[in-house]
UniProtKB/TrEMBL annotation:
It is a multi-pass membrane protein. Its main location: membrane. This is Iron import ATP-binding/permease protein IrtA. The chain crosses the membrane at residues 22-44, 64-88, 142-161, 167-185, 254-274, 286-305. Keywords: ATP-binding, Cell inner membrane, Cell membrane, Hydrolase, Membrane, Nucleotide-binding, Transmembrane, Transmembrane helix, Transport.
Length: 600
């Protein structure tokens, strides 16, 4: 294999594209927060400047107007800066979401195809949709709230200490108490939060299982029992939640009490009265604390209220980062173009993990115009063997080549152009029937699409749909499993791929359709290399080569007749299947033996 490079997991700094915007949010939020403190300071300063008038002394009117002017500028400036901060926050969020989604989609396109088989589409959707949306809280709100929660108390305290330090200390008491109580609450909650997440996950699974399995479960008369499982999980969650809320309620109430405006005001007024009574502080110097002290804890409370969203956002960020750090499939640095369509496996071994090898030392050749069939007991590795060809996974040992080029040296798009694939599970998209058929070859014209549909024996059924080829799957086109299978066969046929892999492609078809489709596929195999996985041996009796796979090794190879005379696994399987077929014979489609298979 010529030099391939292992693409390193991308350096994950989700917020890099919006770093300058985050800087702008911080700056604007700081100006906005300062702007809310300035008018309060102005009120206090105004009172202090006008105080001499109470004692009949002259007032510095110039200073009065200067204070009014500062307040008059600060207030609208504060509103404008706060608006700007929130606006930039949401613009940054939109940019971040677009960037992260693009990165995720790019990654999804570079992950090995086998990766998708191991993940549910639900878990991918959670990351691409829910987790990315949850990031909104960070750029859209948290940065702004955090700046306000720091700037407002700090500026207020600086002013308070500058005017009267004893009252400033009194103002610190509710602030420090709030921080201490919150810290204690969060420390106690750490374990509970983990248990909360586990409970929610168990409840979600129970709900999904209950809803998904309801039809099967009910049809077997187990509805009540499964419902009981869901109800038990709900009860468990509620019991835990009640207990947890009971524990935190006391602390939460204490925080509410300590920060309640009436309580803070009473505390500051009491402290001020005592200091004035002892002659330590002048009455006018109590005023700053009364005006500014009330607003010190509000930004912290705001942070506390949004703590759960913040936690969710941080978890979502970690989940997105982990997702982006997954190793992508290595790509060739100098891609090679296959010449011809000979498929060759040479000494291939593979395991899904390090503990167990699923395929051992597989060697085979599949030439254009020939059909190679893979048969063998369930779990012997047939699908795995076939899926290594389009690089669902990469081999551990040996080499797979297409047209003389190691598949790892062929660019992904070029490889997929060589190989048409029909899997056991038919995947159709919620789009028109026509677009479903030409999914892998969007430039195919209507005639080519219809030819493929005719060959796959699905054309007549499509014509009976409300809008024919323009019917949308899932909307006005509801196809059975077998019909969907034929649609994916048409999709494989419409591609020009010179290599076709059919993994139990006709398994979901009734015997008539199976025979018809296999006839069509056989006709198309004339110039293609065909690799067919089959459970039902009678469908591949005419294959040029039949490979018998057992325990991940090719134990026999030859034509149907050669393998029957070899009296090995193939013959045993054949005899067993024929006995079953004799007990429930399938309709005869053609008088020719083997005509109903991928037979030649
Ligand atoms: P069947 O005829 O039932 O479809 P098969 O012959 O095609 O079976 P494979 O599906 O290739 O067999 O499976 C071979 C072995 O690999 C089995 O033991 C299976 O459990 C294991 N296996 C298959 N897919 C995975 C996977 N994604 N991760 C881990 N092990 C897997």
């Amino acid at each position: 294999m010529s030099g391939t490079v292992t693409s390193p997991a991308p350096a994950v700094d989700l917020f890099a594209p919006v770093r300058s915007r985050i800087g702008a949010i911080v700056g604007l939020a700081a100006v906005g927060a300062a702007g809310t403190v300035v008018p309060l300071v102005a009120v206090v300063e105004l009172a202090r400047t006008l105080w001499p008038a109470v004692e009949g002394l002259p007032v510095d009117t110039g200073r009065v107007w200067a204070i009014v002017a500062v307040a008059a500028v600060a207030l609208p400036a504060s509103f404008a800066a706060t608006w700007g901060s929130i606006m930039v926050g949401h613009l940054a969020d939109a940019r971040l979401q677009r960037d992260v989604r693009t990165r995720l989609l790019d990654l999804l396109g570079r992950l090995p195809l086998g990766w998708f088989g191991r993940r549910s589409s639900g878990s991918v959707k959670k990351t691409v949709e829910n987790d990315v949306s949850a990031l909104h809280h960070i750029t859209g709100h948290a940065v702004h709230d955090l700046v306000v929660a720091v700037v407002v108390p700090v500026l207020s305290l600086v002013y308070l200490f500058a005017t009267e330090w004893r009252m400033a200390l009194a103002c610190l008491v509710p602030l420090v108490l709030t921080i201490v109580l919150y810290a204690a609450m969060m420390a106690g909650s750490r374990d509970q939060l983990v248990r909360y997440d586990e409970s929610v996950e168990r409840l979600n699974s129970a709900t999904v299982e209950f809803v998904h399995g309801i039809a099967v479960v009910k049809s077997f008369g187990q509805g009540r029992r499964r419902h009981a499982g869901y109800a038990t999980e709900t009860d468990r969650f509620l019991r835990f939640y009640r207990g947890w809320m009971g524990e935190t309620a006391t602390m939460q109430t204490l925080v509410e009490v300590v920060t309640a405006p009436a309580v803070v005001l009473a505390w500051l007024a009491g402290s001020g009265a005592w200091l004035v009574g002892t002659g330590t502080v002048a009455p006018v110097d109590v005023l700053p604390a009364l005006v500014l002290g009330l607003g010190l804890t509000a930004p912290l409370l705001q942070l506390g209220y949004t703590g759960q969203s913040m936690r969710g956002a941080l978890q979502a960020r970690d989940s997105v980062v982990r997702f982006l750090q997954q190793p992508v499939q290595p790509q060739p640095d100098r891609p090679v173009q296959p010449v011809g369509s000979v498929v060759e496996y040479a000494g291939v071994s593979f395991g899904y993990d390090d503990t167990r090898r699923v395929l051992h030392d597989i060697s085979l050749t599949c030439r254009p115009g020939t059909v190679t069939a893979l048969v063998g007991p369930s779990g012997s590795g047939k699908s795995t063997l076939a899926r290594l060809l389009p690089r669902f996974h990469d081999v551990d040992d040996g080499r797979i080549s297409v047209g003389g080029a190691d598949v790892r040296d062929v660019a992904t798009a070029a490889l997929y152009a060589e190989i048409g694939f029909v899997l056991q599970d038919a995947h159709v998209l919620r789009t028109t029937v026509r677009d479903n058929i030409r999914l892998t070859r969007p430039d195919a014209d209507d005639e080519q699409v219809e030819q493929a549909a005719v060959a796959a024996r699905i054309h007549d059924r499509i014509l009976r749909l409300p809008r024919g080829y323009d019917s949308v799957i899932g909307a006005d086109a509801h196809l059975s499993g077998g019909e969907q299978q034929r649609l994916t066969i048409a999709r494989a046929l419409v591609t020009d791929a010179p290599i076709l892999v059919l993994d139990e492609a006709t398994a979901a078809l009734d015997p008539d359709s199976e025979a018809a489709v296999q006839d069509a596929v056989s006709a198309l195999a004339v110039e293609r290399s065909l690799l067919v996985i089959a459970h039902r041996l009678h469908t591949v009796t005419g294959a040029d080569t039949i490979l018998v796979l057992d325990g991940g090794r090719i134990t026999e190879r030859g034509t149907h007749d050669e393998l029957l005379s070899a009296c090995g696994t193939y013959r045993d399987l054949w005899v067993r299947q024929e006995r079953v077929r004799e007990r429930s014979p399938e309709p005869v489609v053609s008088g020719e033996p083997g005509a109903a298979g991928v037979n030649r």
